Amino acid sequence: MAIQYEIEDGTGKADATSYASVAFIKQYWENIRYDFSTLTDLDFQAWGNKATKTLEGMYVNLWPGTRYSTSQSLSWPREDAIYFDETEIDDDVVPIEVQNATAEMVYILSTGADIQPLIDKGGNIIEYSVSVEGAVKESTTYSEGSSFLNRDIYLSVEDALSRILGGVSSQYTLSVQRV
Which residues pair with 141 in a beta bridge? Predict the structure, then answer.
């Protein structure tokens, strides 16, 4: 079965799977000297889909405005959306910032990073012991778990979206990860 790779072009497609075309991503990478000589178009397509899916999950509640159409598959295009500096965003486009963020997320995927890690919900028993010496002692240690609010972010993606979101999202705790 072939990869479905449909680019959102600002019309609110019901079957769109990515915010950026392979050609766009390659040009973006070329402009900032990312190497893609060993990658195929299928790599770009699969990662473009995953990058878009991840951006949708991470920022769906932060995008300004409202979806252009109830039948569109992705969050962009949007009506009544404005940049952080209060400049209007046309309602028939996917902003260049969103496309750039997609290209950055594809780069992160190309390094082998897991952009959608399993987040431990916590409460799992990680140690259990019982001892008997004069008195019975029982000890249980549970894992802390993770919170979505403590999810790692990628500054290159946040930078790409800063004109829309106003900088690093306040919902995250920053931790630097070199990829």
Answer: 127
- pLDDT score recorded for residue 176: 55
For tokens 């979206």, the residue is: 161
Phi-psi region of 88 (alpha: psi -120 to 50; beta: other; left: phi over 0): beta
What is the residue range of 83's domain?
22-118+148-165
Domain contains 85? yes
- Global pTM? 0.78
Closest residue by Cα to residue 16 from 27, 29, 26, 5: 5
Q: How many CB atoms lie within 10 A of CB 179?
A: 11
As for how many domains the chain has, the answer is 1
Cα(16)–Cα(21) distance, integer angstroms: 11
* 53 neighbors 34 (Cβ within 8 angstroms): no
Residue 130 inside a domain? The answer is no
**135 falls within a domain:** no
Q: What is the pLDDT of residues 74-123, one digit of tens each?
A: 999 999 999 999 999 999 999 999 999 999 999 999 999 888 776 666 66
